[in-house]
Amino acid sequence: xxxxxxxxxxxxxxxxxxxxxxxxxxxxxxxxxxxxxxxxxxxxxxxxxxxxxxxxxxxxxxxxxxxxxxxxxxxxxxxxxxxxxxxxxxxxxxxxxxxxxxxxxxxxxxxxxxxxxxxxxxxxxxxxxxxxxxxxxxxxxxxxxxxxxxxxxxxxxxxxxxxxxxxxxxxxxxxxxxxxxxxxxxxxxxxxxxxxxxxxxxxxxxxxxxxxxxxxxxxxxxxxxxxxxxxxxxxxxxxxxxxxxxxxxxxxxxxxxxxxxxxxxxxxxxxx
Length: 272
Known about the structure:
Elements: H1 4-7, H2 13-22, E1 26-30, H3 34-43, E2 47-50, H4 54-57, H5 69-81, E3 87-91, H6 100-112, E4 118-122, H7 128-136, E5 141-146, H8 152-155, H9 165-181, E6 185-189, H10 193-202, E7 207-210, E8 218-221, H11 223-226, H12 248-261
Parallel strand pairs: 1-2, 1-8, 2-3, 3-4, 4-5, 5-6, 6-7, 7-8
């Protein structure tokens, strides 16, 4: 599948919204440096996330919690240097948005000094005021529902979220509130397939899944997981794209093609 037209066209919030309307799948991946960022863009990745997952796959930590604003800024700058057209999102790390004022300052730092085009933050309705403030200040936001790794100790592990009816309904309500507050994108992590499809249909903004549903408007995975070089066990919702690939570049291309064709995720990568 040719991706030349994708890599030559600037990816913006407006373009992502149009892709949802047109039924065109959005391919997203994490990156932490300029060299990999270039490879992702060459393969036609639309959205590159500098995830706080770097704490685990780069720094070797057990969780994402130790990652600092300085860490995120450094890696955002690195990835920005490797991109021309892909939209760049930076994670707001743990305790970097405990107040609206702090969130605006740190998000502004990622955009002004880091080169990010959007920030991602975990949380439901409790973050609506923060999302609204970021929106008012011209900072695009990707909301994050479902499994929220920054809450790992609160929820007792990396568990699928939204399996019971009350939690599912709360997640739907959270998504609608965050959209109304001004979120431009929604990420759903480790959510039952049916629930993810419902939220995708209910929202006007694009929904990106990771361990969610092929019905989502796009997919994201951790780069090191698809290359089978992450520390520890690869998550069930991921896939080793190095199998059958002759190179790292080809593995990334296979991932992008499968997302765009709608063949990833398959049944074995989602939850009931």
